Amino acid sequence: MSIKTVSNVVNDHPHVRPEMRERVRAFIEQLDYRPNGMGRQLRQGRSGLVALAVPNVISPYYGELTSALVTAARRRGLTLLVEQTDADPEREREAADGFGVRMVDGLVFVPLNIPTDVLGRRRDTTPAVLIGENGEGVDLDRVTIDSVAVGDLATTHLLERGRRRIAFLGDKDAERSPVLAQRVEGYRRALRRARVRLDRELMRPTPEWERRHGYDATTALLAEHPDVDAVFAANDLLAFGAMHALRRLGRRVPEDVAVIGVDDVEESRYCAPTLSTVAIDRTSAAEQALALLAERLDGLDAAPRTLTAEHRLVVRESTGG
User: Hey, which residues does 307 pair with through a beta bridge?
Assistant: First the structure.
């Protein structure tokens, strides 16, 4: 019994005598043989594996994005290997350079804090696609988010609700990342258009964009500026913390202070009051990213392409919806 005959049976080729096919199948069952899919893919020059580097998987936004990417990859016969960078610039640089591993076919990368010039000098030649605001001008395919428009939309919604003392929650004392810089610019743009004076005292920094930081920043904000009538939080987690602080301070949401976030994570639909937010379409972003990467894996040689994930306003109880 030759190796070629066994291969023909395993791959269900028609030109095998029935009695020989039965003998081979009997041996396969007896030995509990399973085809080595990895070996087959490697012979074809592919591993079928794609690395995904995200800041973390605990955050609802990144967790939901990861789930959407896994689903999109599975539809294309790809398996995702997930790596958490913790938004550390050095760890993000390692991700851009391939983590020293050469077994993956491609990389989906969500960078936050790696400098753009460092990202542009990545040494790894593995096809890669970026997701998010970071990486403008880098020679890579990218699915970006128009966070200027996101910030403008959220702030305009509060202005249309008659709010004029609108705080921005989630600024940074240090240099702003692209996502933060864009959301701040959208906030400022909407205020300028409405001829509402920008009060820098209402732009509140937080160490990170987590619930506890939203709680602490809102508590301090209201102690210093009790006339605040709205909060635009840079993400939903900050907004959840802000609403908790407002309840503890005896402020009604939205009657006294309206609150809006960004992302539309699942919790925003079930908190009390439900949270108004600007939804980022993570399913669409995942599909776009995997489509761009799949074309590169199939040999596409073209200039880098940039697509923009969709976003939309979702009005709920926290702004009077």
Answer: 143
Q: Could you confirm whether domain 47-145+281-311 is CATH 3.40.50.2300? A: yes
Q: Do domains 3-35 and 47-145+281-311 have the same CATH topology?
A: no
**What is the pLDDT at residue 123?**
82
Dist CA 303 CA 244 (whole Å): 47
Q: So what's the pLDDT on residue 41?
A: 46
Residue 260, classed as helix, strand or coil, is: strand
Give residue 79's identity as a one-letter amino acid code.
T
CA distances from 277 to 28, 42, 81, 160 (A): 56, 45, 31, 15
CATH number of this structure's domain 147-280+314-319: 3.40.50.2300
Distance separating alpha carbons of residues 251 and 219, to the nearest angstrom = 11
CATH architecture for segment(s) 3-35 = Orthogonal Bundle (1.10)
Q: What is the pLDDT of residue 45?
A: 54
Where along the chain do its domains lie?
A: 3-35, 47-145+281-311, 147-280+314-319
In single-letter form, the type of residue at position 166 comes to: I
**pTM of the predicted model as reported, rounded to 2 decimal places:** 0.84
Q: DSSP string spanning 97-151?
A: TGGG----SEEEE--SSS-HHHHHT----S-EEEESSTTTTSSSEEEE--HHHHH
- How high is the mean pLDDT in each 10-residue block of the chain (321 residues)? 62 70 72 53 66 94 96 94 92 85 86 90 90 93 97 98 98 82 97 97 96 98 98 98 98 98 97 98 97 94 96 98 80
d(C-alpha 112, C-alpha 100), whole Å: 20
DSSP structure class, residue 228:
-
